Amino acid sequence: MNRITSYNDGFSPRVLLQPQNPLSEISSMRFDPSYLIPISEIVTGFTTSCYVHHKNVQHVPLADKELGVHKVASRTTHNLVIPPPASVSNAPQLAWEAVYPEGSINPSATIPGGFEFYLSGPTNFSRSLETASEAIFSYRMMLQDEWEWVKGGKLPGKFGGVGNLSYSCSGGRQEQRDKCFDLRAMWRPESVGELYTYLPQTPENSARLSSVPPKSVGNPDYGFSVGRGSYSLGPAVGEWIAIAFRVKLNEPGSNNGEIQLWIDGVSVINVDGLTLRTTEEARIKGMHFSTFFGGHEDDWASPKDQKAWFADVTGAILA
């Protein structure tokens, strides 16, 4: 493992744990625990992974009560199961299973698919989030063999904002968008990956997000597709990959917020100069554990019964 001492130009120096393998070789490599917490200096954290060992990280079971799971979509399940075998030697032994029935789109559709809930972490961690300004949340995931991508779909991410206004910062919400933020991974046709964001609608945010290569698209009715094509989710078919999100809150009145996405320890999207909040009351709240096909129209639907698995849920406060 190599150590490098900065993100990119313009970011404060910090030790990152950078894997030696390039992104194209991820699927054939052994899982490295630093994929879940890519930055070594953390204040406190939690993990359900037996492979992460850090003096400031608490180990907890992959269970709703211990992880502060709440606001669970009532028409879907996230059963705890033994996942299918994978070639990586240190694969998760237990996982939440997402089921996407044939014809399903989002959890509120006629045929619901995937699952949706919010996760704040263990009690002591969620209390620490109340004053945190920077945090990482991560997990490992695997898609079933012969996965069919169709037009696209959502994967879990993180959320925050002011009180209850921080929830449901998605689905085309337009009101009080300055009081919430939501970041999720998303797949597009043929495994193309992106970061799907809902941030306060400011000219500065639009300009910064639009500049992220290779392609970024703002939708006036929904969220902002950021860095489409910056990574592939193909390696997740039949194998485990790790997805990690970092958010650094801006100081109210300044656009010095930051967001970052890692896939198996490789930083694929990194944006600064952002406004994630307009008031000191807005906080990092935890994970928006949301996954489904869609989109809202039937042409986004899963073409067959499909499954995915999620494990090694992890959170770390950096500041």
Automatic annotation (TrEMBL):
Superkingdom of origin: Eukaryota
Alphabetical UniProt keywords: Lyase
Domain Polysaccharide lyase: 95-313
Protein name: Polysaccharide lyase family 14 protein
GO MF term set: lyase activity
Xref: InterPro entries: Polysacc_lyase_14
Keyword Lyase: yes
Lyase among keywords: yes
Family matches, as PANTHER family: DISAGGREGATASE RELATED REPEAT PROTEIN, PTHR40124
